[in-house]
Amino acid sequence: MSRRNLTETLTGYLFIAPILLGLTVLTLVPILVSFFFSLTDWSLVQGFKGIHVTGFKNFSLLFRDHVFLKSMANNFIFILVVPATMAVSIVLAVIINKHVYFKSLFKVVYFMPYISSIVAVAIVCQVLFHPEYGPVNETLHALGVANPPKWLADQNYALLTVMMISVWAGLGYNLIIYMAGLQNIPRDLYEAAEIDGASPMKQFFRITLPLLSPTSFFLTVTGVIGSFKVFDIIVVLTGGGPSFSTSVMVYYLYDQAFVNLKTGYASSVSVVLLFCVLAITLAQFYGQKKWVNY
């Protein structure tokens, strides 16, 4: 290797060194440590002398723990937030891109919930969905609904309410990404379709959706991973209740690690969570060959 090539190679490594260091210290090492602690019955307050290796006992207990199984099921239900957000976003993006003036204003309006503090959003939603005095139920009463749902206080509606709020909060981000994708679709494709007599609906399904498939794939992958990481809105809105109806794996992990002080058990939850995200992401990358058009 010549001196110039060696210098260029070392310069490249120097540029990526901070990222590699951060990835190693903040991601890879914690993953390996979690794997180890998942095989122990360690508690954070015992110190390192309290570590006892128990093998796969935590995993055996985990899959007999009905609260964990409920949390895992809630996580898989919560994935539905991703396609719902994408569907609403793409329709809004197409409408705003073609038929609306002051597009920048609408982008800001829809993006505001995304950049706002999720705690502030959650507190506002608590007021809106209050079962007795909330504006939502007051409106339903005015419309003649005698017994409207109690939303966050009802275990049958609590998860659905959190999902609706998450869809609303995530609309702005998806909308901006889709509008950027729409700018890259050549106009002459639509002009040729109009000359051939294609209706706007047919243009949407035959031109817009296929050419936005790389954007949809990106939003699907990041959205599904984000849905498994949901935590803050659950803590503020419901605290996992009522009756664990809104508990998810990350919240259950937090509860076991920092409330019940079962660090080893919580680590086993994190390992299961990692494999769930890994399996779904790999399935998405395998499946994208059949529907994404580059």
Please describe what this structure looks like.
Helix content is 71%, strand content 0%. The protein has helices spanning 3-37, 57-62, 66-78, 81-99, 103-115, 118-128, 135-142, 158-183, 187-195, 200-211, 213-228, 232-237, 249-259, 263-287.
| Main β-sheet description | none
Please state the oligomeric state of the protein chains shown.
single chain
The low-confidence parts are none
Specify the overall morphology. globular
Strand share of the residues?
under 5%
The averaged pLDDT comes out at 89
Order of helices and strands: HHHHHHHHHHHHHH
Query: Helical residue percent?
Result: over 70%
Characteristic terms for this protein:
294 residues; mainly alpha; globular; 14 helices; 0% strand; single chain
Question: Would you kindly provide a brief summary of this structure?
Answer:
This protein has 14 helices and no strands. By secondary structure, it is mostly helical.
